[in-house]
TrEMBL record:
<dbReference type="InterPro" id="IPR021869">
    <property type="entry name" value="RNase_Zc3h12_NYN"/>
</dbReference>
<feature type="domain" description="RNase NYN">
    <location>
        <begin position="104"/>
        <end position="216"/>
    </location>
</feature>
<keyword id="KW-0812">Transmembrane</keyword>
<keyword id="KW-0732">Signal</keyword>
<dbReference type="Pfam" id="PF11977">
    <property type="entry name" value="RNase_Zc3h12a"/>
</dbReference>
<protein>
    <recommendedName>
        <fullName>RNase NYN domain-containing protein</fullName>
    </recommendedName>
</protein>
<feature type="signal peptide">
    <location>
        <begin position="1"/>
        <end position="22"/>
    </location>
</feature>
<keyword id="KW-0472">Membrane</keyword>
<feature type="region of interest" description="Disordered">
    <location>
        <begin position="76"/>
        <end position="99"/>
    </location>
</feature>
<feature type="compositionally biased region" description="Basic residues">
    <location>
        <begin position="84"/>
        <end position="99"/>
    </location>
</feature>
<feature type="transmembrane region" description="Helical">
    <location>
        <begin position="30"/>
        <end position="49"/>
    </location>
</feature>
<keyword id="KW-1133">Transmembrane helix</keyword>
Length: 244
């Protein structure tokens, strides 16, 4: 506001000086001084009006700050802590909660089972036995002799090859090393898993190390009658009773 007021004073002073030296005659300096005085007067009036409008701002700001402080101040009710929850079992949900039963393992003597249908090694025989066991809720694993691939396809087949052919996970198929018998690996796997062994072999040579081969509910025999697969249901039923 100071600058418009100073301009107004200077304009009036210049106009007065022009009037004193030139008289009442309208001269160029007097005209310029008059216009400057009018402009300065307008700026002074505008500054005064703008200052009045702006004056309440500090009051409004103070009121806003006061409202914020009141809102942030916790009420006595808000300061009361919530009651602590008691620890304990949660209420049970509606409906029955079924626990997943552990898998029922079974170990297949692959090199024996593939000869079940007509004493001819067939991959289809293995697939049918695997499907039948899975259909009864078992999780089969298969162990082969090292020469099993040559009997089925005239070439060596490893774990991954058989797993792909039988559509099984790779960790459920094992081909033992060359010159190594598969029998002790089959029996050891069955013992570790608490599983039955699907085979028509009696494992008499391994009865000393694995006396369970003489038990009635350990070896699951099978074969084909009139072109249809059969498995020893008595042993499978006993396995179900043990698992239950």
């Amino acid at each position: 506001m100071r600058i418009p007021f100073v301009l107004l004073l200077l304009s009036l002073a210049c106009g007065g000086a022009s009037y004193a030296f030139g008289g009442p005659t309208l001269t160029l300096p007097m005209a310029v001084s008059g216009l400057s005085a009018i402009a300065a007067f307008y700026l002074v009036i505008k500054a005064c009006l703008w200052g009045r409008k702006k004056a309440p701002a500090p009051v409004q700001e103070a009121q806003t700050i006061a409202r914020v402080r009141v809102a942030q101040t916790p009420t006595p009710e808000a300061q009361i802590p919530a009651p602590a929850r008691k620890k304990g079992p949660r209420p049970s949900r509606r409906g029955a909660i079924w626990r997943r039963s552990p898998p029922r393992h079974v170990v297949i003597d692959g090199s024996n089972v593939m000869h079940w249908n007509g004493e001819v090694p067939r991959l289809t025989t293995l697939k049918e036995v695997v499907a039948a066991l899975i259909g009864q809720g078992y999780q089969p694993g298969i162990v082969f002799d090292a020469n099993a691939g040559y009997k089925l396809g005239d070439r060596y087949l490893d774990d991954r090859d058989f797993a792909k052919l039988l559509n099984l996970p790779g960790d459920r198929v094992l081909v033992v090393g060359k010159g190594e018998p598969a029998d002790p690996t089959i029996l050891a796997a069955a013992r570790d898993l608490g599983a039955k062994v699907v085979t028509n072999d009696r494992f008499r040579d391994w009865a000393t190390d694995f006396p369970e081969v003489a038990e009635n509910n350990f070896l699951v025999h099978g074969g084909y009658r009139d072109g249809k697969l059969w498995l020893e249901e008595r042993v499978l039923t006993q396995a179900d009773a043990v698992a239950a």
